Sequence to fold (55 residues):
Amino acid sequence: LRVPNAEIYAIDVSFPALKDKDELAYLNQQPTSFVLPDEAVDRLRAAAGTIIMDS
Fold:
């Protein structure tokens, strides 16, 4: 198996990194589930993007 050279970076994407404490509280109230309301999915995706961009 031939593997190209690659640089690997570890990125911590966790809710406590959010600066918006109200959004953190909302996200922490969401259940672990394969089915979430559309609003929860949108807010989870937005939070992940914010955390990554702020890191």
The two ends are 34 Å apart (CA to CA). Residues 38 and 44 are 10 Å apart (CA to CA). The longest helix spans residues 38-54. Residues 15-54 form one domain.
